[in-house]
Design goal:
Elements: E1 2-4, H1 7-27, H2 29-33, H3 38-55, E2 60-62, H4 66-80, H5 85-90, H6 93-120, H7 124-129, H8 138-151, H9 157-187, H10 213-238, H11 246-263, H12 271-291, H13 302-327, H14 332-346, H15 349-363, H16 367-396
Length: 397
């Protein structure tokens, strides 16, 4: 029996999945510790149930994914609004260095994925589906690029990428702390709490006014205009003969808007409202995507996927210790940033922040690390990651 859910039932079920995920996470200290996203938790519960029902021959669910694409574009348009050249310049040379390292890691993740997949004799696109798409990109990027990989011939791309992203979240949490501790103690010569005497940098909290209906209205207009312009950009990009997901066009359009606003004072980008709309869109987008995972498609890929994912973890450890740490200064701040890189390089920025918070509680503060890591990990790297992924997609086919 096939249960065909229209767009309204699909969205309603996505909300229930989010509510279930929130409830489970609130009850589980382990899930909170590893910073597992709510839609991943609820979505996995549902997709496991759906897999059991499918395997038992009871029923199969089919969903209407029209609004999933809308939520995806809204989220990525929101990311593009953060790609301000002015903000990047204000961060100083360390931000540029950290961004270059993060982009290098993205390139290596994809090169490793494609290379190992070729050695294993499997589709190179599987290597991409376990490369920077789920590792640096996380669940959001996985869900966005999966349809592109499927269009290129990779069956079950969404399930592969999302499963890899979930693995990455846990792996990033598990290795970030040990890597940071090793660097702090063995390379920096620190002992727990030794740095507590270090004076904390002064922090200035900006006054935040309550958001109004006008803010959200303007933010909605800006996102929709970016999505519309992005669609035109995507059409033009595809005329080059290369494969570009719609998300790239949306990000380029919103990045154009935000950089114009930086030099035209009369134009105001409603960043806070855009962030809220983008986050809500991401939650719904991920919930729908996780619900549609078909776990039974992973049976034949179990061993190759394990090999590919273990290789990615080893690569991230090597990058953190031998690239991120020395290039960022070989000090405790560099150790913190290396630990953070393990977090968002394999999972997400919340994982990176959790890793650094653990080190901070043990060895002392590093305000610089807490500024640079989320700036690069949550703002800029997604933009560059999408570009690198697009290049590799066109190379791998």
């Amino acid at each position: 029996m096939v249960i065909d859910l229209n767009v309204y039932y699909t969205c309603g079920l996505a909300v229930l999945v989010l509510m279930l995920g929130e409830w489970i996470k609130n009850k589980s200290a382990v899930l909170r510790k590893f910073c597992i996203p709510v839609p991943v938790i609820g979505g996995l519960v549902f997709t496991v149930l759906a897999t059991i029902l499918y395997s038992a021959g009871v029923c199969e669910f089919k969903f209407d994914g029209v609004l999933k694409d809308l939520f995806s574009l809204a989220f990525y348009a929101g990311i593009g609004f953060t790609a301000s050249i002015t903000v990047l310049r204000k961060g100083g040379i360390k931000v540029f260095k950290y961004l270059v390292i993060a982009v290098l890691a993205v390139v290596l993740q994809n090169a490793l994925g494609v290379g190992v997949a070729s050695l294993l004799g499997i589709n190179p696109l599987i290597g991409l589906a376990t490369g920077s798409i789920p590792m640096t990109g996380g669940h959001g990027t996985s869900a966005t690029f999966a349809p592109e990989l499927e269009a290129l011939g990779l069956s079950g791309a969404s399930t592969i990428a999302l499963a890899a992203a979930t693995f990455g979240l846990v792996a990033g949490s598990l290795i970030g702390g040990p890597v940071g501790r090793y660097l702090a103690e063995k390379k920096c010569g620190l002992s727990p709490l030794q740095r507590k005497a270090m004076e904390k940098a002064a922090t200035v909290s900006a006054d935040k006014t309550a958001l109004t209906e006008k803010d959200f209205l303007a933010a909605t207009y800006q996102i929709l205009l970016a999505m519309a312009l992005g669609s035109i950009i995507s059409v033009l990009l595809k005329k080059t003969g290369l494969s570009f997901p719609a998300s790239v066009g949306a990000m380029l359009a919103s990045a154009l808007f935000t950089n114009i606003a930086d030099v035209v004072p009369k134009i105001k980008i409603r960043h806070e409202a855009i962030n809220i709309i983008g986050n809500i869109s991401l939650l719904l987008f991920l919930a729908i995507t996780m619900m549609t995972m078909k776990l039974w498609q992973l049976v034949d890929l179990a061993i190759p996927m394990i090999i590919l994912l273990v290789c990615q973890v080893v690569l991230m450890v090597l990058i953190a210790i031998f690239v991120t740490f020395p290039l960022m200064g070989k000090d405790f701040t560099a150790a913190m940033m290396a630990s953070g890189h393990c977090g968002f390089g394999l999972g997400a920025v919340p994982t990176a922040m959790a890793n650094m918070k653990t080190l901070s509680d043990t060895y002392g503060e590093s305000p610089e690390a807490f500024f640079i890591v989320p700036l690069v990990g949550s703002l800029f790297i997604n933009f560059f990651n999408s570009i690198v992924i697009t290049v590799f997609m066109n190379i791998a086919i």
